[in-house]
Amino acid sequence: MAATCACNPTSYGAAHEQSATGRAGAAFLSVGPPAAIAGVSAAVLHGIPGVNDSGEVTLAVPATGGATCGSGLIVQRVRGWPERSWTTRGGLPVASLADTMIDLATILPAGRTYAILEQLLWRLLTPEQLASRLSRGRPGSAVSRRELAQLSDGHRSVQERRVALGMRQRRMPAFASNQVLRDERGSPVAEVDFLWRALRVAVQIDGWRYHAQGAFQHDHDVSTTLVVDSDYVVLRFTGSDVEHRLSWVLDRIETVLRRQAALGRTNSG
User: Fold this and answer.
1) Which end of the chain has fewer CB atoms surrounding its CB within 10 Å, N or C?
2) Measured CA angle at 117 (ends 41, 104), to 5 deg
3) What DSSP element (H or E) covers 7?
4) Angle between helices 112-120 and 141-152 (to 10 degrees)
5) Domain that holds residue 201
6) Distance, CA of 99 to CA of 117 (rounded, Å)
7) Spatial contact of 194 and 163, defined as CB atoms under 8 Å apart
8) Overall domain count for the chain
9) In this structure, is residue 59 part of a structural domain?
10) DSSP β-bridge partners for residue 121
11) pLDDT of residue 168
12) CB of 122 within 8 A of CB of 148?
């Protein structure tokens, strides 16, 4: 994306007091296709939380396009126009949610896009969708790639990521991901998705990955609590639990962590 310029077409100025959608529509008509709503304006039309309507409208146009300019309308000249991902909102062409998040990384203060991604990822936007729009040299890509890596945190399924995000939002004690539990002889027994080693609590999503037999008291119920050596508590949940009863899953985890802490354990992560 090249440098921006500000525009003030007559038809846009007449619509300046309209709703965000009305202003965006008037701005689009004032410039004409090929053009699309982008930046903060696209974020507002997508309903992205924490992004406020500034009253200005941002339009993306091809790098070789021509648009008359002044104040109140921001024009972004985009290289590789056919490769960009567009959708529609309110009948208007709008940058995709993934492209909008990357653009916001060049506009919002540090940390704001991270907080927004926490709310959007795995609900309205998948990590794969965002990653597919990142490209070397594109403004915002480096920040978005770093924040995506921090949020993904090595979790290997959508269900794991939702649970991890929920635990962070509730400010539960820090956990380690994808850890191996071992028996008294140090032999690997099972791999769990979340582990609080000092609190002696583990969580497994969508069943067990066994490395040996017999070390766990295993209940074949769909959702259950397992106890290892009468000391290590392992909570097991299904993908359906996470999809349909996430609050209940988080409540169960939080209750066990508090109980273990009350028994005199301390958490070292």
Assistant:
1) C
2) 35
3) strand 4-7
4) 50
5) 159-262
6) 13
7) yes
8) 2
9) yes
10) 125
11) 87
12) no
DSSP reduced 3-state for 228: strand
- The pLDDT assigned to 122 comes to 65
So what's the pLDDT on residue 181? 78
**Is residue 174 situated within a structural domain?**
yes
Pairing state between β 92-95 and 86-89: antiparallel
Residue 209 pLDDT level (bands cut at 50, 70, 90): very low
Can you tell me the distance from the alpha carbon of 149 to that of 167, in angstroms, rounded to the nearest whole number? 17
User: Residue written as tokens 């991902």?
Assistant: 85
For 81-101, what is each residue's pLDDT tens digit? 777 788 999 899 999 999 999
CA distances to 19, 30, 64, 179, 269 from 93, rounded to whole Å, are 17, 14, 19, 45, 46
pLDDT band at 254 (very low <50, low <70, confident <90, very high): very high
Determine the Cα–Cα distance for residues 96 and 38; give it in Å rounded to an integer.
9
Distance CA 36, CA 166 (A): 35
pLDDT in tens, 160-196: 878 988 898 899 998 888 888 777 777 777 778 899 9
Q: Give the pLDDT of residue 156.
A: 61
Q: Which residue matches tokens 């070390």?
A: 215
Using an 8 Å Cβ cutoff, are 87 and 24 in contact? no
Q: Say which residues have a Cβ less than 8 Å from residue 114's Cβ, sequence separation at least 6.
A: 147, 150, 151
Same domain, 170 and 253: yes
189 and 146 within one domain: no
Rounded to the nearest 10 degrees, how much is the dihedral formed by the CA atoms of 122, 55, 140, 120?
-10
The candidate with the shortest Cα–Cα distance to 238, out of 138, 162, 159, 183, is 159
Neighbours of 175 (CB within 10 A): 24
Same domain membership, residue 48 and residue 129: yes
Strand ranges across the sheet with 92-95:
4-7, 73-78, 57-62, 36-37, 92-95, 86-89
